[in-house]
Amino acid sequence: MAFEIDVVIAFADRDNETASKNELGWVSQFKKFLELMLTQVLGEKPRIMLKGEFDSMVSPKMDNTAVLVSILSKDFIQSGQCLDHVETFYKVLESAPKNRNRVFKVFKTPLNLQQQPPRLRDLLGYEMYQLDPDSGEIREYTDYFSTEAERQYWMKMVDLAYDIYETLLFLRDTSSQSEVRSIYKRKTIYLAETGHDLSVQRNIIKRELQRHGYSVLPNQTLPGNASELERLVRRDLEECNLSIHLIGSAYGEIPEGADRSVVDLQNKFASEKSIKAKENKQEFTRLIWISPNMTHASERQKSFIDNIKRDVEAQEGAEILQTPLEDFKNIMREELLEAGEKKIIDSNTGRTIYLIHDKIDLVAIKPIVDLLEKSGFKVLLPSFEGELLALRQQHIDNLRSLDAAIIYKGKVNEQWVRMKALDLLKAPGFGRKKPIVAKAIVANTGSNLNVESFRSQNLRVIEGDEQRSIESLKSFLQEFNA
Fold it and tell me: Which domains are delineated in the chain?
């Protein structure tokens, strides 16, 4: 089915206000970044429209909209007009085939379940605010390229972009739709919800599983009521033959009507599923990771962890590890490999460099490729021909297998460079088994790159004309070899 508009972003006007007319408001910045990421994965610029409270775009326009993104905040939930926009879109969906979620909720500020519009409560949310895990302080991002933003804001943005992308592919009547379905029709894994201290780590693992074609449950917000939560978790576990549990310092929220946290209850139900599976000679495995750093754990959390380690029943069908998270992820990958579900790239050569560049700079990078190959390195290059999904997968495979990376900035803008630098930061989430040894950006003279911000990401910036860049690269390669 063809739509006039790919994405409508509904928001409260106050959430897009700025101190200066020359600045972009929070929602406008969000639209800009989402558009950028969707352009990368779709291979074309998406049609995205903003819809404020008093926007004149009425129902007929909503009829031709593929996806609605609601920017949730206190102003949004207090605005009758914003809630009307959500209702209008849901009325459109009532007459549409119920084949895939087309509504996404983004949190500009935290809202508990009861504060959220009833229509949106069951949807998974994308938190786009800054949370200090120690103090619990909430702040809006002002520097979108800070280390904290790269860990939280951008990871959520990547997830949102890919989820919207999959929905758009599903809705478009193209041949690639069946390809996507076959890729994602694989093993289903239960990735248990965690305490707030491990939300980023859970997100990385979730994204890695999804990129390799696994369905990940739960795929909706867990209910705040104990009986509903039990029904939903048990139902989801029935669809899985593997569950993954990440246990950190935070005990987690206790649902209404329960005396145990959501984290604790999920582990309990999975343990019961293990016992039942064993009796019925069915396959069901659990991987439980316990953080080795428990400095801020409460007495209740320590007791919960001791019980997991001590209780034979709680250990049924489980492999329990208290190792660095990267080691746990390697074991998780091995578990999936044994099931014949995925292939891990062997990258022990120590001599592989991924030269990341845009198609527009294909000719300009040839001297660099020659230098790298003459220096004895295996050079990985991006591809630009073929199906978009296959190209993205090749990029991810390169990120997993490289030893060093060079980003080439020729005719592209700084935003493009930042996106590629962000991919390098996210490489562990794609399945890397070891650190990246060295990273550099090669740019022409006068590129006006913000050198300091890249240095903070351990990226060496090499600027100059072709001859000077080649000489500086030789020095970089000697240090790499050393």
Answer: 1-176 (3.40.50.10140), 186-344 (3.40.50.2300), 352-481 (3.40.50.450)
